[in-house]
Amino acid sequence: MIRILLLLGFIFFSTSASAKIVTAKYKSMHDGRISTNEGCELARNRAKLKALRKGGAQTITTEEFEKCSEIDGRFNCERNQFFLSSFNADITEISEIGKPKKTSKELDGDVIYYCEVTIKANVKPIKQIKDPSFDFSVKLNQQNFRDNDNLFMEIALTKPMFLTIFQVLPYEKGGNQVFKIFPNEMEKSNYIESDKIKLPNNAKYQVYFPKNIKEKSVDEYLFFLASEEKIEWLPNYNTVEELKDAFINSRKRVKTKYKQYTIIK
Predict the structure, then answer these.
(1) What is the mean pLDDT of residues 251-262?
(2) Does 133 lie in the same domain as 117?
(3) H-state helical runs in 55-123
(4) Taking the mean position of all CA atoms in its chain, how far away is CA 260?
(5) Are residues 118 and 158 in the same domain?
(6) Among 53, 163, 213, 262, which residue has the least CB neighbours within 10 Å?
(7) Which candidate, 153, 156, 174, 176, places its Cα nearest to that of 222?
(8) Nearest 5°: phi and psi at 79?
(9) What is the average pLDDT score of the chain?
């Protein structure tokens, strides 16, 4: 998580893209460390990702996913990847074609389990600013942090824009998963006119390891939303889905990006 401490972030007007009905199939492979139901849920999430990709959604890069799998476990990474990709397209209706196909076989003395899921989904693209003259890039000071490390970010912009930054904590189960970290009480204006900024400015962003995590490391995300118009976001959301609903219901055109980072105990 990130503490904010006081010291003395397309103009292509996307036409109303029509929804697309697609089918997608995925076959998961796992060992006995997760249940058969979890293996099928893994296959189901990957099928959803394939459906989103057919509908135009971006996905986490292979490098990011492999790193996340090492830290957070493959099942959770699949879930995180689905949530973040769903900001580019929305699955409005979904149904499974047939029942999941569950099989197993012995490989080098170990039993490997498989589950294949096929879905039919109605995928609707979400409005995004796609004009290359409206863009921004983000660079963090590092990707692996220790408890109490300071986080800095450099943001380059092609033109003035309103920028909002959320911290996403996918491992949170009983509380809020999404927190707005910029703008904040010390950095009130999020209209960026310069072509490059460094954050924090009037504050201090300090990373700390969450208390409710037993593992030695955990992955978190920073989610960036840029727009031409000012959008009043809530300070926090219970889930990533709630943030996505707010994003869709705002009916504003935005450009989104995210950055993944790891905190090591």
Answers:
(1) 84
(2) no
(3) 62-72, 74-85
(4) 8
(5) no
(6) 213
(7) 153
(8) -65, -45
(9) 82
